[in-house]
Structures are given as structure tokens and as C-alpha cells.
Design brief:
The chain is α/β, with parallel strands linked by helices and about 230 residues long. It has a single domain, classed as 3-Layer(aba) Sandwich (Rossmann fold), CATH 3.40.50.720. The chain has seven helices and nine strands; from the N terminus they run βαββαβααβαββαβαβ. Strands 3-2-1-4-5-6-9 form a seven-stranded parallel β-sheet, with helices on both faces. A two-stranded parallel ribbon has the order 7-8. Helix 2 packs parallel to helix 4 and helix 4 runs parallel beside helix 5. The two termini are about 30 Å apart.
Length: about 230
Amino acid sequence: MADFSGKKAIVLGGTSGIGLATSEMLRDGGAEVIAGSRSEREIDGIECVQVDVLDRPVLSTLFEKHQGFDYLVNAATGGPRAIGPFLEMDLDGFQNSFAKLWGYVNSVRLGVPQMSPGGAVVLFSGYPARKYRPGTLAIGSVGGSVEAFIHLVANEVSPVRINGVCPGLIDTPMSPLQGDERKAYYDKGTAGHLIPRAGTASECAGAAIFLLENEFVTGTIIDVDGGAIVT
């Protein structure tokens, strides 16, 4: 277990799925954790706040309140994402999928100036950014933009470090499917992967923890995808 004693972390999208797993790992490592989300939540040992990553004044207030904080993790999706064949896709839906990118840009632009000089940022993309998967063109385009943003902005936020995690197909509460239908979806979606199962939120969070802890990594994307990209 990493030792984050004396550190303060803000985790956006930090009350569900990968964000929640990251919040809990940081808390268990001794960090003071502020978890932001659009809904009200209570999590033992974590300060939960309501915040929308697209609301810049609210984000600014949050970051200013915790000026000098050490870690920023943004796992928020920003809103609904368009899925389906591109030539049948509603273009407003495609455009709205980029709310995730705008939320990330907002958090980095407004958060980094309030962070400690040795701080670190972690964002999340997704394997459709680098491997075609039917129905995920909008998601992949957003993920590709997130990864390009990380590679480029690392040069301008230094000495604060910024990195990304690229998850594969992960079993999180984001999927509304239940029971056998849920199992069938993940089984089918990962059947051709080197590790033929869905990943877990904690497996992705573990990569985020590594990127926060390791002070010799910046501008990098870590794939946590069960080999999806290379198959």
C-alpha cells in the first residue's frame, strides 16, 4: 500500500466506479480525500462534495478552497456518451460526448495553478481511442483527444506531472445491464482479448495510484485493458 500521509487529493467523479476505487485507495493510504460528483454521497473517511466538472466557477471555488493540494484525479464522464454506427449517429450526441474532454480541460486549467509544485494529475481515456470497436467512434474520438491533451499539456504544467490511464472494458456501475445480460455483454466484449474478462475498477485505480506515487513519470498513458489494444 502506497503511503500518502500528509497528502491532499481531489478526485472528480470520485464517488462511483474507477473514481470511487481511487478515492478509497488514497484514503486507505493516509491521504485527505475530497471526492466530487454531481450527486450527494456519503463515504466513510472521505469528504464528498457536489460539483459538475463543466461548471467552471464551482470548480474554481473548490480548488481555491484547497489551495496547495497535491493530487488531482478526474474520472468524471461529463455526461452521456453517444454509441452506435457513425453514419446513423445524432451529431449533437457525438458533440456532447466531448463533455468529458471539456471537463478534463476545465479541471487541469483551473486546478493546476492551485496545486503544490510537486503535484500530479491523472485523467482517463479508453481503449477505443487506439483500437476500433464497433459503435464506439465518439468515445474513441474523445479518448484520443484526452491522450493528445495529456502528451502536450505535460510540457506546460511542469513541475506538476500529468498522466493518463487507458481502461479496457471495465465492469463498473456505468453499465445499466443486470444479471445474465450483463455477464453476456462483458463475456462477448472481451472474448478476443488476451485476458478474456472485464477489468475491475480497482485494477484501473491501481494504475492511477502508481502514476500519483511515481515521481519519474509524466506525459504517459498506462493501458489497463487486458491486452485489448494489442489483439
